[in-house]
Design a protein that fits this description.
The complex is a heterodimer of chains A (114) and B (112). Chain A is mainly beta and 114 residues long. Chain A contains no helices and eleven strands. In chain A, strand 4 and strand 5 form a beta hairpin. Classes of the chains: A mainly beta (114), B mainly beta (112).
Chain lengths: 114, 112
């Protein structure tokens, strides 16, 4: 049972436009959500996070939206740049277990075309 | 540079062998996590240590084991290797539990 799902394996957008990456989760105990970006031959890098007490968090060009009732979150990148081309992983954790382990989705490959 | 180091970067070995992957967390981070990424797949959580103690376990095979030492570095031991164990193995660290994780560059293991 995959608790974190990224249903779109890939996404292609034009430079300057908005990129929207989606993520769904099933475990209602998840209370902290993160997005990571991964370039080839490198480890994932933390991008942005959101706590379940919020519905939006913004950091520069990156905004994460959380819809708890739908168990859905999305990452918006505006405007998209060619350097944003990477694999984006959604992750979720249940901090109440005091373990901190994150459950990752399978990733979405974003391609931003010049 | 995330501050997390992993050695070796590449490892080629034969089936049935045993290997040890090493990870040094960022300075000050107490939690260490191990992940496996097989070809074109997501990150599979293997195990987490916090300040020397096992804190959470994921889909880690019995042939695999890990530990975190007093200086907080961690080792992942893979034994009786099979072809299917070929993958990228990532180590990550965080300050505590429930925080964002910082990943190392990974160790690419090839089992022939």
């Amino acid at each position: 049972d995959q608790q974190v799902k990224q249903n779109s394996p890939s996404l292609s957008v034009q430079e300057g436009r908005i990129s929207i990456l989606n993520c769904d989760y099933t475990n209602s105990m998840f209370d902290y959500f993160l997005w990571y970006k991964k370039y080839p031959a490198e480890g994932p890098t933390f991008l942005i996070s959101i706590s379940s007490i919020k519905d939006k968090n913004e950091d520069g060009r990156f905004t994460v939206f959380l819809n708890k009732s739908a168990k859905h979150l999305s990452l918006h990148i505006v405007p998209s740049q060619p350097g944003d081309s990477a694999v984006y992983f959604c992750a979720a954790s249940d901090r109440s277990t005091n373990a901190g382990k994150s459950t990752f989705g399978d990733g979405t490959t974003l391609t931003v075309k010049p | 540079d995330s501050g997390v180091t992993q050695t070796p970067k590449h490892l080629i070995t034969a089936t049935g062998q045993r290997v040890t992957l090493r990870c040094s967390p960022r300075s000050g981070d107490l939690s260490v996590y191990w992940y496996q990424q097989s070809l074109d797949q997501g990150l599979q959580f293997l195990i987490q240590y916090y300040n020397g103690e096992e804190r959470a376990k994921g889909n880690i095979l019995e042939r695999f084991s890990a530990q975190q030492f007093p200086d907080l570095h961690s080792e992942l031991n893979l034994s009786s290797l099979e072809l299917g164990d070929s993958a990228l193995y990532f180590c990550a660290s965080s300050v505590g539990t429930g925080a964002e994780q910082y990943f190392g560059p990974g160790t690419r293991l090839t089992v022939t």
